[in-house]
Records
---
Amino acid sequence: MDGQNASTLQVESHTIEHIPVTERHGTARSLFTIWFGANIMLLTVATGAVATAVYGLPIWAAVVALAIGNLVGGVVMALHAAQGPQMGVPQMLQTRAQFGSFGSLLVVIIVIAMYVGFFASNMVLGGQALASVTGLPETPSIVLMGAISVLGPLLGYRFLHMLGGLMSVVAGGALVIAFIWALGVNGLPSGVASSGSFSWMGFFGVLSLAALWQIAYAPYVSDYSRYMPRDTGVRPAFWATWSGAVFGSLLTMILGVFVGAAFPEEDSVTGLGHLTSGVGALVVAVFGLCIAVSNGMNLYCGALSSITVGQTVFPRWKPGASARTIISIALFAVAMVMALAGKDNFLVNFTNFMLLLMCVLVPWTAVNLVDYYYLKHGKYDIKSLFERDGGVYGRFNTVAIACYVLGILVQIPFLSTTIYTGPIASRLGGVDISWIVGLAVICPLYYVLMKRTSTSAASAVAVQEA
């Protein structure tokens, strides 16, 4: 049983079903620790390093861009977290209420690809960290780091929360030590503080990257609040999640800024080791260990989303812990192939992956948040979410699907990546404001269209009754 008396090491029996009130437990404080601890890892360092090593920004501009991006993106992410205690179901299952039972599959499948992409990225950095500390070859280290991460989804929710709380203390301490050694004991190499050149393209590229770092958690952040009592409250859940995710990410990214500025030609793991020379092995080891925690979270939610797809197609299927484990192993295998194929040009591949990911996540988050906070006010028919025909929400919501597709299309001219730069982004000097445009267009459009649809439906019912 997953109630208050369940052991942390006990395998979670639930997958995507609604969590009964009798099994709710935890406080908002645990939302701070899991998101603070999960973000202090090597991938976060690498994201900060992009600002100086890839975009070539001076340190001050990189820090400002990262701060704005994390603060704004964190708001979007935390608004999703606040839905968990009220709904008691995984975030991607709740998406059926906006897109319909079958209409939601497009978004869910894209999100599964996102989980696998993040898992692969973490495997590369975790493997590099393990190789640097132990002397093992890089490829076996990458595979081993991924295999360790499977333990998280195997045991489930309670275990992942426990690991997040533990790493918030251990990794938080390692982060403090890293800053002391990097800036106080060793100091930055000569000329690094004044290196780099400002560009609006780089500034907005980094700002967008940081915002997406937070927004990318939106499709599964409420998976880690769905066991909490309904009386947890929207505000406590919001602020605990926001502060944990933003401070954990921002501080670690700032460390990455120094790594990228000081050692732009080195990979993030090697650069971090050089910057914190003297305690580098300890810092790299702890940050590498955190990757296993974050990857366990990615894999857990990837499994839940995959189960959501399977349960939609095969409604009589009653998946349990064993199904979650088998699916997690399958996703790990796919991520391993991606990690080994893209490890040699990691930072560029990761940057493109993140910026293109924003294009498909932004319209979904716009639809979900407007629907939850402004149209339904958090009141949903939970039973309908588990019906193959979508119950009161139907199989397809054409308004939500059209807004989602349009949200992707309107962003394309504003995209700026090494793979593709849109015509408007080119005229703006390479500045990427695609996610801002996506939110600005889809939020009001979805609200107006759904209001009009609801009014038309109500009028038709009134005419029939008359």
---
Amino acid sequence: MPEFDVDFLTEPDLVFDGGQSAKDPRAGLLKYGPCPPRDGSEHEIVRIGLIGDSWSISAMRGLLEDMRYGILPNGSDRERWNQPFPGLGPNSELRMSFDQRQMWRGRIEEDDLDALTGVRGESKRVEQAINYVKFQMENICSQTPNPDVVIVSIPETLAELLTEGKKADTIRTTDTDFRSRIKLLGMLNDTPTQLIGPKTLRGEDVQPKREVAWNLAVGLLYKARRGRPWKLTELKSNTCYAGISFYDERGTDPDTRASIAQVFMETGENFVIRGDPVADIASDKNTGRTHLSTEDAERLIETILERYGERREERPDRLVIHKSSNFWEEETAGFISGSEGVRRRDFITIREHHPIRLFSNTQYPPLRGTVALPPGREEYYLYTKGFVPEISAYNDSGTPNPIVVRPHGEVNDTSYREICEEILAFSKLDWNSSDFCKKLPVTVGIADAVSDILAEPMAQELPDGAFPYHYYYYM
């Protein structure tokens, strides 16, 4: 067996109101409150739109009402990592309240839902259901004032009808994805959306109500204020971070894929860039992974740096690219030529699975932040999940396994430690959740969610001038 070196990275800090720092998102929110919005207000009143049938609207309003008064863990769950949900209102640590006016409610009538049973064909049935939501969405968002966020509380009968005979809870056909279409409807109405399923409202979700409340509150706060509840302190100044991935465009040639880039700045600001279609000749027939031609790679990087410059009024000193596939020679050449003038570059492949496991000589799994360094150090194995001393817990099931971090052999200007520290920090930037961390950094970890939306034919028809760049539309 080859000998591995093992290193340990300290947990990145998060910044909250007043520049105060904490390592746990929930602990920081409870102690200091979220980062204030740009208008400087101390308390956020989130205007909530609601779409559903009479039952799902009533059940959703019941959940929002429970959130006002706080939700305690069950008796057996009173552990340090199970923070009680503190409640909302003027005196809440979360500094937010909900405003639910009647004019922001869109009710789908029972007769409409009954009529769906007579619609033949799965695709036509889903299209009709989306039209019901579209009508209500347009009506709600045209009100003055309009809601900050629209919650689509999926009717139980609708979910049963559209997932009939399927094990999955997701409503998806070969032509379209229900969630993605709702997200696009929100974009067309300049309003972020949130979907809630009937299992969650009935309390049959795998998460307890306290967890649902925490994640819902953080997600709604992020979407309503169009800003971050917390940010990082660890990112390097004047660095552009880009996660690049690919997706199939529905309704087009099955061999055609398109590229997307998720771009982050050291301030935590982020945006989405839609790249050009990629021809099938750029696909690796052995692995099925898509790669960019030199020209496509150059054009995509030029767009990323142009958008970065529009926000910072300067080009970055450093470019970091995260990708789940290895860098082909043609891609690398395009990324380099497109970033001419950038002083430092790091091209990094990040993969979720590897068979290696580390075991400690205690009852606990490896610590989050552990890095295993094999001989040669061509790649590293980083534990983004593991025992977390800050909450005295490993709150996942099974034995944790590391992610694979593989720097490019020739385009790598930064130490393994700094690269892994940045990835560890990016695992704490999913503002649609209040979890301590995710396994993958957001640069690649939420690519599937963004891709599902951009794969829709409706998204492909959006002109660049109307293309929604902000993350809160996709979350």
---
Amino acid sequence: MLELRPILSALWRHKISALLIAVQLGLTLAIVGNATVVIQERIERIARPTGVAVTDIVTAQFMPIAKNYDRLEAFRLDLDMIRQLPGVAAATVSRAPLTGGGSGTGLYTAPNQEIGATGGAQFWGDEHLIDALGMKLVAGRAFTPNDITEASFSSGWRPNMAIVTQQLADKLFANGEALGQSIYFSGEDNPIEIVGIVERNLGPWPNSHNAGSTVFFPAVMDTQWFDYVVRAEPGQREAVAKLLEEKLAERDPQRVVAVNLLEDKLDRYYAGDNTMIQVLSGVVSMLTFIVALGIVGLTVFWITQRQKQIGVRRALGASRSAISRYFLLENLMIATTGIVLGTAAAQIFNRFLASEFEQPALPLSTTAICALILFGISLAAALVPALRAANISPAMATRSV
């Protein structure tokens, strides 16, 4: 406690430099805390279960060269061939999920409504849809061949049944009794019975606020934007992808075929999130290094200026540990001031970001962890200069006057 007065006196004499380090530490905490929340949120988002067998799925699209191309006939012939290929577990024609492209709809629990829709993504597919995507059916049944209709968007066809994800079922029917209930499109009175519920499917836009609210309708749609979704047996994905491209081109050479792995498409979708994680991680590392460097520089500067005082204290019997403790305590006071300022700044900054950019809230626990880490880095940065100060001999300090 006797060291506090000289420490406070020394800090007051160097108040500008001490304040700058404290402010730098505080700003670093504010930035690091909020960056950490963003990084955690992005990592958790990428790591979420998709409800789809991503690592086993291959997708294929084709663009016909000839005009008046019969897509529905091509779908039938292609799927018959694909399902016979070695290594193929299941195949369907549907828009592939998790790729950033698709369509959405608004659903209601009563007819002729136009306000208060429950939003969700929509897919069409045949009786192999659930199996091809590798989804888990938790209630009801899958589509059967008799349920499937061949249609186009311009035909005015409307489904009379659907399969929904558990998340969408819970949103539509909070009482948990979605199976067998009817849902409706906006302003329509055509009932669509929920015949099955799957555990999960994030839909086409995993970063959307409606991700996971997905509905599936029993139809093969005549449109150029649909994929063949092919689930390979475990370990056969690459072989199936190569064979799929060859056989599709061989069956009908009058078209352009593109084959992709669903995992690659998902990686491209999350490319922005991964880039943000890398950039923010780099910023956090750089700021932490700069703060540590500033603390080391300031402590070394102060030690150089105080060699005479250190020598006098050593001559009067001060131990090396007492000298080291003096500078560590001095740094502790600066760090504590910076941490207090940074904690307040982090919360204020987070509230602004949350209101303007929908950033996740910054928990106090995360702020506390970041503060402890920066606190430890601050003390570690001051440790080596403090040990150096303890090794200054009284004779060297005297000769330096």
---
Amino acid sequence: MGHGPSIDELHFAETPSVTKVPGPNSESLLARQEAVDSSAVAYPKRIPIGIDEAKGATIKDVDGNVFLDFFGGIGVLNVGHANPYVMDAVHEQMDKVVHTIDFPTEPRIELIEKLREIAPGDLKGASNVVFGGPSGSDAIEGSIKLAKHNTGRHGMLAFEGAYHGATAGALSLTAGKKYKEGYAPMLPDVVHVPYPYPARDPQLQGDIGGFCPAEDCCQNTGCATALDAVQRKFEDPYSGHESPAGIWVEPIQGEGGVVVPPKGFMKGLRDIADDNDALLIADEIQTGLGRTGEWFGSDHFGVTPDAVTMAKALGGTGLPIGAMLYHEKFDTWGPGGHIGTFRGNVPAMVGGIKAIEYIENHNLLAHADSVGRYLRDRFREIAAETDRIIEVRGEGLFIGVEFVDAAGAPDKEIIKTIQKTSYKNGVLVWSAGRNGNVLRLIPPLVITETQAEVGADIICDAITTALD
């Protein structure tokens, strides 16, 4: 099979091609869906298309309109839709065996070995992998069990702005109130403390190392305040809770608004976890597998977490699989210590192997870094001309653009306008942020330079029009 086709060969086209949207066939399919599908369906409410097929960084709807996909299944399709290098291997595997629970297969062992090779920091070659259910939420549930089992404690610490999933344990760690409404009570002794937010945190003058618990303070007030809050939850005898079993953190917050913390934050968390015999668990479900221009978001901060949760892009081509990679010293489970019926989804394991290989063979980490810098620069050109954009941020092809209204308040409506205008002109984008006021761009890593330029032109035009 070789290295597979170049990224230039993966797509329907380099540019979008749309007429009237939604077209009549999409309208018909949307009406049929509304009549029979769950009222929990969300995405078609904002982007009304019926999908027929997809390739690379492009999607074709049932009316023949071709769109540039700038949200890639919310970080699932890192090597693009229907990548032949991945799909051919998956199809071959499906003719052999699909479901194996946790009996050994070549793909299972090979995927674990691949993940050990690319693991962040000291986890390389010193880690184990456990598969459970097929989603990121399932991976988080496994991490909760790992932390509790190894510490004997049940408290948990997460951050404001966090999203970790929607099952019971994962939802307890998720910070968004809208996801929890009507589902209380959550797990006990789960606390949320501030996450550094450089665009909004007030900055104090002078040396702040006096109250920052990090060994090497980076002098960022928001970072110091957050780390101080974390430390107090562990070490203050009147913190109000049991010392947590672990710290759950997104190295870069996704749903919270693509928020990139200061460089010292993850190192500070590592120090606090070590001082208190707690696990540091990095939720890399959205930031992992090359999304940020590194294999994992943790790599940007030079920190080794105790465990890494993965899903989304791990299945290579959208096949569902969740996993957790953790330091081998925490492999204290007995047989059946963590289970899940679909932990033997062999085609998804093959998809993961081939996706990692494709990223390696086509140098997509560097490509994601380069194209991501280009896109952020394009948006910063607009930001320099207006006070309605307070920050353009991100790493690699994980990009957020935060908007406010004329009074400086979060502007959710302008995101909807930009999204709608971009859609009508052939580019699909999504939103994020605590107030829905962040434009979130997470295109497949295989997006070409031409597609990035064309897509940026369309999105920037939509922004400029919305700001007028």
